[in-house]
Amino acid sequence: MKFLKISFFACLFLFALNLSAQRPGGGPGQLPNLDSMRVKLSLSADQETKIKSVISTYRPKLKEARDSNTEQTARREAMAPLLQSMQEEIRLVLNDEQKAKLDAMKANRPKKGKKAK
Q: Is a pLDDT exceeding 60 seen at residue 59?
């Protein structure tokens, strides 16, 4: 009985750990995670408002680019310049220290895609 309880709680812990590892947003082709940026970059209320405005401006454009292209390569090509422009506008809101932190966050982000064999 004791072993069963321990096994149950171990499974519950692993399930909770798996859920916490799945973080939404911020990946390639996705909108930035404003909550994460707020905490990690110590955004002011004014900066947060400006970044929300930038994101809300680009959201419909990105949705249209995503929805109008059925092929993944065409979708990426249509979205890439929009994402680049959005990132540039967001960087205009940040100070130099925040820009350095953002660059470090991007450099430490895990790479996605096919792995080399």
A: yes
Tens-digit pLDDT profile for residues 31-41:
567 888 888 88
d(C-alpha 73, C-alpha 81), whole Å: 14
Residue boundaries of the structural domains of the chain: 28-106
Q: What six digits make up the tokens of 86?
A: 């959005």
pTM recorded for the entire structure: 0.63
Query: What's the CA gap between 19 and 32, in Å, rounded?
Result: 20
Phi and psi based region of residue 5 (left: phi greater than 0; alpha: psi -120 to 50; beta: remaining): alpha
97 vs 2: CA distance, rounded Å: 53
